[in-house]
Amino acid sequence: MDEPTIEMWRALLDFRARHGRYWKRVLSLKWMNGSDEFEHFSASLRMVRNQLGPTWLYALRPAALDIAARRLATLDSQADNCGAEPVVSREPCPNDH
User: 3-state SS of the chain?
Assistant: First the structure.
């Protein structure tokens, strides 16, 4: 896996919002001492660590997170999140005709 899932992006964005400028350093330390278990979206944060790793995290640029935030905002603004369902379920949305 080279890209985070939607849940992973949400976890990273939430963590960055709550921990500020040095959020990557904080997350890395929490991964090392196991205290990420007590964070919001802890399972998704662990998935980032296990599937993408700390090297990926440090290579992550703010612009990539900003793009992910805009993408998630677009998905969340859709009334029934129908934009994301075909990718996950492979079934057409009820509103599609």
Answer: CCCCCHHHHHHHHHHHHHHHHHHHHHHHHHHHHCHHHHCCCHHHHHHHHHHCHHHHHHHCCHHHHHHHHHHHHHHHHCCCCCCCHHHHHCCCCCCCC
- 52 located within any domain: yes
Q: Return the C-alpha torsion angle 69, 72, 73, 79, nearest 10.
A: 180
Comparing C-alpha atoms, which of 17, 14, 48 is closest to residue 31?
48
Residue 24 in this model has a pLDDT that exceeds 90: yes
* CA-angle at 85, arms to 79 and 43, nearest 5°: 100
Q: Evaluate if pTM is beyond 0.70.
A: yes
The token duo for 97 is: 């005709």
- Overall number of domains in the chain: 1
Question: Domain range spanning residue 80?
Answer: 6-89
